[in-house]
Amino acid sequence: MSIVRWTLRALLSHWRRHPVQFFSLFTGLWLATALLTGVQAINGQARESYARANDLIGGTPHANLQPVDGQPLPQEAFTQLRREGWPVSPVLEGTVQLADGSGRLRVMGIEPLSLPPGSRMAGAPTKAGGLIDFISPPGQGWIAAETMQALDLTEGATQPLANGEALPPLHARGGMAPGVLMVDIGVAQRLLQTPGEISRLVVPAAVQSTLPPPWDTRLRRDDGADTGLDGLTDSFHLNLTALGLLAFAVGLFIVHAAIGLALEQRRPLLRTLRASGVGVRELLLALVIELGVLALLGGTAGVASGYLLASLLLPDVAASLRGLYGAEIGGQLTLSPAWWLSGLGLALVGALLAGASSLWRAARLPLLAVAGGEAWMQAHRLWLRRQGIVAAIAAVVALVAWQWGDSLVSGFVMLGGMLLAAALGLPLLLSGMLRLIPTIGRSPLTGWFIADARQQLPALSLALMALLLALAANVGAGSMTEGFRHTFTAWLDQRLAAELYIRPTDEAQARALQEWLPRQTEVEHHVVVRGLDIEVDGHPVELSGITDDSLYREHWPLLESVDEPWDALFDGSAVMLSEQLARRLDVRAGDAITLPTSGSNWQPRVAAIYADYGNPRGHVLVANQELHRHWHGAPVDSIAVRAAPGAVDALASRLQDAFDLGSDRVVDQARLKGWARQVFERTFSATAALNSLTLGVAGVALFIALLTQGQGRLGQLAPLWATGVSRARLMQLNAAQAWLLSALTLLLALPLGILLAWALVAVINVQAFGWRLPLQVFPGQLLQLAGWAMVATALASAWPLWKLWRSRPVDLLRAFSDER
Amino acid sequence: MLDVEDLYKSYPTPQGPLPVLQGVDLRLERGGSLALMGESGSGKSTLLHLVAGLDSVDRGRIHADGKPLHEMGERELAEWRRCGIGLIFQQFNLVGSLTVADNLAFQARLAGRHDAGWQARLVEQLGLGELLHRYPEQLSGGQQQRVALGRALAARPALVLADEPTGNLDEATAEQVLHLLLELVAGSGSTLLMVTHSPQVAARLQRTVVLRKGRVHPGVEASA
Asked: Helix (H) and strand (E) counts for chain A?
């Protein structure tokens, strides 16, 4: 072991003498690990929250009996089935708003004593003894400690609600999902003001008998016991993971460059070690240990920073997930030791991956070969050829995945292949572009400028690859986000044409509202929308019944349609589908579809397909009379009111007073749009932050590459200085070279970024969310990014140039004589 | 101590194998010293590298300190370099990131033979006491070669191999370094094989062998 020990000491002493290289390696590992573990922390926190939400009633596997029409069930469903020997247990769900407006809670009412034997509530066994406080008046509200903290609630307190009721004494429970309040079902009926109603029934999964009438037609069995959040949010998390992996890859480029450079600089040391009797195995072992130690250092800093990053991004991500999917995520990071260890493991694996080629070269280092610059250039040329071959293979893989792939995974394979091909092909392309610069009539200095820029490519290529990827990711994600913003805003303006939307609490109130509204002078007219939830081919679908109105004919945005689509809809021969449902069912305008009804199936034509951004579920528009004919008693879902814009506030206020409607049931258009835009902005804030960080990492990569390369630059510049080129001129030439290479990289990054934007909106988005966005390019945004890239280059090259400026003529002289 | 028999070595070139050694025979007794001379390309450095275990033999035998180097694998050759020999190069080849003190002790530590007393004597004899905390780049050529001498002798190797150790030094410094090398080798009882171009340097060793075109030049072996 003493051989490895002393070898390691000699190897490590290199970093003391080259702190910049150590800094670059450390920074690469640190940033790569920080960004990926940060994203993983967010995803892990979200998944843990979903798991808790799924496990609120856990233990014995169970199925749900859901109402076919999506409406609340009478409590008799429970009592009758129980009397007939069915081991069912009722559940009531709904949302309440706190009186001070500080937040909302999802109420889950259960009847613990009738739960299937072996069930668990909030992760704990249902022991009767422990439930006395829960079921005895005034009951108990189980809630997650983090939710209590977030809503400023205290243990044992009773909190007033906006509807005049008060919460039972609150009790923090470890297994509760964030944002959920679990109470006894009687308490839930009081809180939600739905006496005698339940939402669904829980039955042990093992019970497979046919339900007795009338429940055989009114209830449908749903064996998916979970909340479905995992499936809905998978795409969101996958997108975050992809960004994290991109940042990880960019970070590893830095590590690879730093390790490669360190190997080149340490060739004489490695030869001396070998000549002094250090065997290949001992040398490799020492190099691996050194890499491992560095990885642990960078990884530890990275994991700590990842935690910090996740803490900063989590509020925005949680708000996005709540807005998009209704998924509640704990606002405080609670990460397991496994996460910390996996972060360190990631850094280790990343460092080994990034350093593998250097270790391989160290193992094959001939003892007596002369490490001349030319030999290195030759090796680089061979390396370039191999890179070119891998780039071509990656491009072919991307093409194949695009042409024949039909899933999100194939979409990401296409994206990965495309980016890898571009990154690996970059040095070849840059070399080719430099060759193309006209040679006629150029001065000897210009000739040297171009030749020297090409000679610098091997040292800078990895940093330029990182810059290419970061710039392309910024162009791609920026175009997609900005395009989405434009499309989404225009779509919202069309879709939310009415000034006010009312959600009645029940049918009686809906009828009263329909009588009241025409009597108000501000109301121009109103449109009633009836709705219910059904399943089509296993996909959850919201069905909306509408009446013929200009609100739809003039404003509803259609993506594709048959002739006279609205006539076809309102004459009852056709329906309209949201884009994501049409894609899932693989139908187009003019095709027929089958919809399950209360009786037999209905097979209307598809008159049109419309955009329904941000809705993870399918949506179908049908004429109201058809809804009534096929799904008896579909309740009023909402009432859209057209009114003079200036009178909306007063009308909303009168409505709330007259019908005792909460603020969540009377929503004006402006507020709804504002809320939707807020969700949108927050959805992309995490993306934007990760993107900016990736560009920052690329800037660091370029800085480090220029700095490390600058250390060996004196020798290349000394001959010019010796032949009469001033230091000021040398500095200008050096700066111009860095700018030229960055500008050429930017030139290639722009089309790559636009291609990436296309892949995101036309492939990834379609596979992940079911809808496609038009590809839009924003020249102003591209110009801004180009400006940033040039500023990053200027900053990255400033320090090396300053060092060159500070170098004394005697240094140049020494470099000159050493070079001879 | 060293017995080289019928040694062949060639290197591949685009034009075919280039023979460098073509049947070299050489013997060196324990405690003796021998200068290898010859024109550039005559094979003297190649012979030194083969004896050092830095390269492999094509044909022939090398027995050093009773060990058959020509039969050894990578691990055994590494051990031979670590424990059996002390190497001194024309370019010094010090570890630039280690101090003089660490460079001096480096090979002895690798060999597990670090002896603080012996090292202190070497430091004194080599006149390096003031320089122990400096780095190689802060030393002159002569100082660097003195450190290299100390490193090569710190593990008390049986055989010291020197490849033009004074080739990079001015006349006065070269003389000083050579004097120290011979004195220390004699003092430690090691055997010395040195490649040199200089007849004056060769004359200071016990024997001289001249290589020409990969063979020992007959009748040119001389004894001091």
From this structure: 25, 22
What does the alpha-carbon distance between residue A532 and residue A619 come to, in Å, rounded to a whole number?
10
Which chain A residue has the Cα nearest residue B114? A2
- Does the beta carbon of B75 lie under 8 angstroms from any beta carbon of chain A? yes
Helix then strand then coil, in percent of chain A rounded to 5, is: 60, 15, 25
**Residue A421 banded pLDDT, cuts 50, 70, 90:** very high
Amino acid, res. A209:
S
**A3 with B82: Cβ contact below 8 A:** yes
pLDDT band at B32 (very low <50, low <70, confident <90, very high): very high
Task: Please tell me the predicted confidence (pLDDT) of residue A590.
Answer: 92
B83 touches chain A (CB under 8 A): yes
Classify A198 as helix, strand or coil.
strand
Residues of B in contact with A278 (CB under 8 A): 78, 82, 110
pLDDT of residue A127: 63
Shortest distance, CA B68 to any CA of chain A (angstroms): 17
Task: Name which of B9, B51, B97 to mutate to probe chain A: the one with the most chain A Cβ atoms within 10 A of its Cβ.
Answer: B97
Alpha-carbon distance A4 to A288, whole Å? 11
Strands B159-163 and B85-88, by their bridges, are parallel
Q: Do B81 and A2 touch (CB under 8 A)?
A: no
Looking at beta carbons, which residues of chain A come within 8 Å of B78? 274, 277-280, 282
What the block records as the tokens of A496 is 């939310």
Distance of CA A142 to the CA centre of its chain: 31
When pLDDT is cut at 50, 70 and 90, the band that residue A374 belongs to is: very low
Chain B residues close to A17, C-beta within 8 Å: 96-97, 135
| A29 and A302 Cβ atoms separated by less than 8 Å | yes
User: CA-to-CA distance for A546 and A543, rounded, in angstroms?
Assistant: 10
- Residue A2 and residue B106: Cβ atoms within 8 Å? no
Does residue B76 sit at the A interface (CB-CB below 8 Å)? no
pLDDT of residue A748: 92
Nearest C-alpha neighbor of A708 from the set A249, A248, A262: A262
Torsion angle in degrees (nearest 10) through CA of B128, B132, B138, B139: 20
CA distance linking residue A394 with residue A420, whole number of Å = 6
From the list B83, B11, B97, B201, the residue with the least C-alpha distance to A9 is B97
Disruptive mutation site among A16, A272, A282, A285 for chain B (greatest number of B CBs within 10 Å):
A272
Q: What is the mean pLDDT of chain A?
A: 80
CA distance A479 to B56: 61
B144 has a chain A CB within 8 A of its CB: no
What are A's interface residues with B at a Cβ cutoff of 8 A? 2-3, 6-7, 9-10, 13-14, 16-18, 268-269, 271-282, 367-368
Which residue in chain A is spatially nearest to B106 when comparing CA positions?
A6
Q: Within 10 Å of residue A601's Cβ, how many Cβ atoms?
A: 10
The complex's ipTM works out to 0.78
Answer for the pair B186, B197: CB distance below 8 angstroms, yes or no: no
Contact B110 A271 (CB under 8 A): no
Q: Which residues of A518-535 are buried (b: 16+ CB within 10 A; e: fewer)?
A: eebebbeebbbbbbbebe
Identify the pLDDT of residue B93.
81
The per-residue pLDDT for range A281-293, each reduced to its tens digit, is 999 999 999 999 9
Give the integer Cα–Cα distance in Å for A596 and A119. 33
Going from the N-terminus, what domains does chain B have, and what CATH number goes with each? 2-219 (3.40.50.300)
